[in-house]
Structure of Lipocalin-like domain-containing protein:
Amino acid sequence: MIKKIFALLSFLILFIAVTCDNEPYEGDIIIDTNDECLIVAELAEQALIDFTNADDEDFNLFCQVYRDALQEQIEVCGDENGDLQATIDSLGECIPENNTTACELAIAATALALEDLEDAITPNYQVACISYREALQNQIEVCGDDGTLQGLINDLGNCEPVVFNVVGEWKLLGWQSDIPRDIDNDGIETNDYLMEIDCFENETASFNADGTGALYYRESMQVQVSSPTNNPNDLDYSVECFEDVRTFDFTWTQEGDAITVTLDSDGSVLDFFRNGDLIFIAMRDFFVATSISSNVEDIVQDIIWGYVRY
């Protein structure tokens, strides 16, 4: 799940690249103020129930209704992970397959709804939770239940959003950029630059319950870039790591998935945001590669740091 969440950063970076320095995260999050998203999600769930209960004669009709409902849900709520579109694609031309039972369809729908719930950020949690709860109820009606599914429904309660708790110890997991690079010169480009270097393997952050905390930096690096073929598109990198132990104490506040960190040293404000089980921060102009070739320009670009709880 963490790898999937981290992969979504390629979309978030496109937004951050055009915002002002360290602005609060305002990415592609659908905040439903008029319940329209909730309504269309419930309609899609009802369409799914009708579809899974359809006989062969009505299969095509109810399949198309379900497909249209999913498309409407995408238009109103968005489809950040592409799961709804994947479901539409799996329906194809709505031709029934003899080896697909209504119970199998219900189980697949429940698994998809659970995946959406696990990936949901706070503004979307209630919609995702209700969808999962209704998928479970449909699975009970179609497949039966030994009490396990009903227990899951009971655990969901009234689907009130769970407040994300940032208190704890966090460790740097990766650096994401929208520009893939082959920094370790192995012929493979990647958007996660941390995978390409041997530095920054133990950078951590502590968020205390009293609203204080600290960022712990233990290394710095120097990167040089050149072109052995005098081709600016054929680049070689060299990376040198340095021990550089620094601690930055801070105070922090939280509103939903946004965590505002204020450094004690100079009052600088850092805006973290949460997605899934990770917290992220956009580091302006962090990756710097100095050119040592006349035909290659210096590289300066933003990086998103991702932290995982440990």
About this structure: Helices lie at 2-7, 9-16, 36-52, 59-77, 83-91, 102-119, 125-143, 148-156. The CA atoms of residues 174 and 194 lie 5 Å apart.
